[in-house]
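Q: Can someone sanity-check these two? First one:
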Amino acid sequence: MKLITVGENEANQRLDRFLGKYMDKAPRSFFYKMLRKKNITLNKKRADGSERLQVGDEISLFLSEETIEGFRTQRVYSKVKRYGSVPKLDILYEDEHILLLNKPAGLLSQKARPEDVSLVELLTDYLLESGQITEEELESFRPGVCSRLDRNTSGIVSAGKSLAGLQAMNELVRGHGVCKLYRCVVAGCVLQGQRVEGWLRKDGRTNQVRIFGEEQVGSQYICMGYTPLETLALGEMPCTCLEVQLITGRSHQIRAHLASMGYPLLGDSKYGDAGVNRYVGERFGLRYQLLHAFRLEFPELKGTLGSLSNRKFMAPLPGVFQRVLEDGREGR
């Protein structure tokens, strides 16, 4: 028999979901059969799996060690090797549930392949090294990001270091409760801000999106607002620094939508202008789009996210972004 005592990072989830994480190779039907037979109990009582776990609850597994281990993936957490290409975690804000992180361009938010290093691995390393989580706790809970940025987009990413934090922040993000503001530099002279709408359809084969003025089969509605902050001149090329507010958050939305309007982002290899990219690449060494998640603004909040209530957070512009702005101001 194995006894599991529910901790902070296991609480506030259904029993069957916890069991599915703890014995991740077992079919769901196995859990319900064991619950019916009372081979799995909650607080020494029969359970059906729908119970919401609380801190201190006791889950008893009247199963052999061989059965339990046979249904579990053997996880060995290995810390990220600190080579020069692996950045340190840049923390803008932290409390007992949430971190706001400044992601550099070139780093994945979440890994796409087993060998990838992402923001999640750096976060997990930090929590382990600071004693805020143990490798044993990682068996049933993994910290994670609540919002994602493209690999080559920099700026603020919210992350949960506790289950309560992950759940609350994910709910807030899904409900569009956070105001997300971006900074970017586009080719062309944008004189007036506006709110724009459209329809976006993604091609999974090419990992690119197309923008349409009307709904298409398989498309998603998109909306954003933008405001020109300053006009720039890079050599003979007019540019504009924009502040963009995402109303919807679709894949590549800002990059593709602005490019479809004739204002491609500087450095954008997917949707940008090849000649413009070549120029800024040679002049500034720029190898990615100038798009930065600059500011998060939170509404009035209570409970788990109460410490974020009515607060605003900003991530400093990357050095290359600042150099482009300075050069563009001098060229005006």
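And here is the second, same format, sequence then tokens:
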Amino acid sequence: MHPDSILSIFGQQIYLYGVCIAVGILACFFVLFFYAKKRGIPDKLQDFIFIVGIVAIAVGFLAAKLFQAVYNWLETGVFNFYSAGITAMGGFIGGGATFVLVYFGIGALYFKDKEKNLHVKHFHTLALIAPLCIVIAHAFGRIGCLFSGCCHGAYFGSSYVFGGVYMRASDTGIWGYYVPTQLYEAIFLFLLFSILSVMYFKGINLTHAVYLISYGVWRIIIEIFRTDPRGAAILGLAPSQWQSILFIAGGIAIIVVFILLEIPFKEKRKS
């Protein structure tokens, strides 16, 4: 829709894609702060979480490029990390793994003496907030994809077609009407964020499971309609679809653990 820069600051071009990513990150940290406050997470732990979150986001972006570079290599035989785009699924995996490792690794050293294991005590609450942070950032990121012209669906042509959005595909450079899979996903993510928020404030302890299952199912479906480069198919499925299957399995595993350990699905509120 608008892949060109909107302004230049000290010689650096600013694009709407980057603006949307920045807004998404800010929204992510706002949700983390507000939702953590509501559940009584101590201020010192919140500060620690913010620092770990910044590290995880940085590594997540690198992981997103690495995953896309590997996808391209599997499809073309050429590995080029610098020129590779980014894939959200790779960012989630790399960023999530980094967050957990740093949170528990550094946290064991940071919280000791009187505050020993403070981070462990509140990890369950943090695990309920994390999907909301991811979803809101991802939603704004998908709007950025719409402006950039990446992650698009089928090309309709140069003439208007109902349901199509006029944009320039980032992979071909061709202007025209495309299936706006980015817009559909952004709408889905904002709706999912609303549902997860209601669950969170109602004390339902399954926001992580619902996120993993619902987004996994959604991603498998939306990938069918995407026509941008997404890596070589394996047994008929794109790499992101295989990763989505793992998301669904992870969500189901969380529910099974809750049942086996008799963990309540909903918190008992104090009267």
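A (reply): Looked at the second one. The radius of gyration is 20 Å. The longest helix spans residues 43-76.
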